[in-house]
Amino acid sequence: MDPITTLPSAKPRPWITGRRLVIALPFLFLLAFFLAPFAIVGKISLSQMDEMAFKDLVGFKDGAIQLTWQLDTYATLARDALYLDTYLASLRYALATTLLCLLIGYPFAYFMARADAAVQPVLLMGVMLPFWTSFLLRVYAWRGLLTEGGWVADAIVGLGLDRALLAAGLISLPGQLMHTPFSLVLGMSYTYLPFMVLPLYGNLSKMDLRLLEAASDLGATPWQAFWRVTVPLSKAGITAGAMLVFIPCVGEYVIPELLGGPETLMIGRVLWDEFFSNNDWPMASTVAVVMILLVVVPLALFSRAQSAAEQGRR
Fold first, then answer.
1. I want to staple 98 with a disulfide (CB 3.0 to 4.6 A). Which of 156, 225, 246, 291 is the partner?
2. What burial class does residue 269 get, using C-beta atoms within 10 Å of its C-beta: 0-12 exposed, 13-18 middle, 19+ buried?
3. pTM for the full predicted model
């Protein structure tokens, strides 16, 4: 009989591997710079404020555990119509900005992706060039352009477009463009347009053009090939660009403060007032917590549904 050969025992896998390390780094970053600050803000929203100090949520008194957390701020937030209207306005303006950036950014990204290889770096530089200038300077520049006497305001009034804006409810008076929903959406669209163009360009530039040739050979018109081939394949770029624009627009403060007005009150201004004008940190933290949940929860559900749909197709 042949001698029994023993297989070498498998070496124990190390606990720290390259794959686990690569996965752990983003989670550690989120833990340190998102979850931990969010937990602190959540704690403040439940705390009772004593002048400039906050009482501990859990304490001990006479040998018993004492809970001092309160939900008055959340109840006030649910009762006061001002906060609900502000949340809805923030979501509405953020959605309008996202759609406008998509309508402007998609054709530009498509043109960049189909341009000659020698021209694409120049076009890409043109998209990134505004980042070389201060954000505040660019917003202040729009104040000068849209006020009476600014060349953009004169061009809009000269073409009679202010009448169309008035009919659409974007301005309150003919010729008055500043401190209106029009100036707010215009300023946010200009500021966040590159965040829509860059993901779309990265997605469209990697698309296999042979698919369009195959669609043409099967009898599809250029417009049909665009809607049935190009747009579905660029869905990932559209989703990434929409999230990069929508999320910061919801909590935007600087642009509504400089270009908006009383009619364009957004949640960022309410946060500022609660923190620094009213000095009501629990209420401000409550507003911040609800704002984050309004953005994060739907995005998490959407991402989960999208992943389930992709696994179903496989």
1. 246
2. middle
3. 0.84
